[in-house]
Amino acid sequence: MSSSVLTTLHQRMPAMTPTEQRVAAHVVASPAEIQALTITDLAQAAGVSTSSIARFCRTLGFEGYPDFRMSLAADLAREAQSRERFQISDGDVDPADGAADVVSKIAYHEAATIEQTARDLDLVALDAVVDRVATARRIDLYGTASSGLAGQDLHLKLHRIGLFSQAWTDQHLALTSASLLSPADVAIAFSHSGRTLEVVQALAVARGTGATTVAITNVPDSPLAAGADIVLTTSANETKYRSGAMSSRIAQLAVVDFIFVRVSQRLYDRMATNLRLTFDAVRGHRID
Question: Which helix (H) or strand (E) holds 251?
Answer without folding.
Answer: helix 244-266
